[in-house]
Amino acid sequence: MELTQALVEQIVEQVLQILKGAGQPADHAGKRITAVFSAGLSGGETACRALRGLTGRGYSVQALFTPCAQTVNGPAWLLERAPAVQICGESACSPRAWVEETDLVLIPVLTVNSAAKLAHGIADNRALSTVMAALMARKPVIAAVDACTGDPDVPVVARIWNQNLRLLHQCGIQLVSAADLEVSVRNRLESGGPAGCAVPGPSPRFAGRVLSIRDLRQMGAGRLYVSSGTIVTPAALDEARNRNIEIIQDNP
Questions:
Q1: To the nearest whole number, what is the mean pLDDT of the chain?
Q2: What is the pLDDT of residue 116?
Q3: What pLDDT, on a 0 to 100 scale, did the predictor assign at position 152?
Q4: Which option is the CATH number for 5-190: 3.40.190.10, 3.40.50.1950, 3.40.50.920, 3.40.1440.60?
Q5: CA geometry: angle at 88 spanning 87 and 89, to 5°?
Q6: From CA 85, how far away is CA 197, in angstroms rounded?
Q7: Which positions of the chain have pLDDT values less than 50?
């Protein structure tokens, strides 16, 4: 691995974090996190900063990769950004046995493909099998969904994405942004409770023919997607402006 200036700076940052925490109580020391990487880069840099923060606080982070992730964001890519993470190769140990020694499973970059597989119970590789084993063992699973919360132009695709995320949430996977990964893990393992940060969700879509002020009163600020044939009343437009709701209409 090439020793770049960025890598040197990250190593220095890691050492400073360790020194800063020296002498402080570390009830979380020895906690083991399994980071399951799927083949995506969206939010990856932010997720790696979270991994550096966790290892700097004494957590043991071990990484598994899906077959595609081995080439997209594999061991070399990860170690350049989070040098203290341990890379796990193929092991004779079953995913269930592996999970028994794990305190939490983390998915730093949840891709659309992996989300679809997990939502429908498909675990066709060791990495996803580990996630499924964690769910069945009732171990906490936290996933950063930056890579699968975009706004595709095709409405039916957006509905599929949103449905898959809802299914994962119902399965017990905590969905967060990459920026909230570290605090979510710490809240879960250090306090034993759910993370205090908000769980990001897909932007809502209005399926009716006429969008009225009554419909908008049921949602908070943010984006609302409507179809090209939806009629938006003038009162609804005024309400949206007053409440910082951005109405985005599909192209006809």
A1: 80
A2: 94
A3: 63
A4: 3.40.50.1950
A5: 120
A6: 24
A7: 1, 20-28, 194-200
pLDDT at residue 4, rounded to an integer: 61
> Residue 135 is encoded by which pair of tokens?
């769910």
In 3-state terms, what secondary structure has residue 107? strand
Q: How far apart are the first and last CA of the chain?
A: 51
pLDDT for the residue numbered 231: 81
Boundaries of every domain in the chain: 5-190, 205-249
* Closest residue by Cα to residue 35 from 193, 178, 169, 167: 178
Name the packing angle between helices 112-119 and 126-136 (round to 10°). 50
Contact assessment for residue 184 and residue 142, using Cβ atoms and an 8 Å cutoff? yes
Residues 6 or more apart in contact with residue 152 via CB below 8 angstroms = 158, 161
Identify which of 13, 131, 172, 171 has the alpha carbon closest to the alpha carbon of residue 81.
Answer: 13
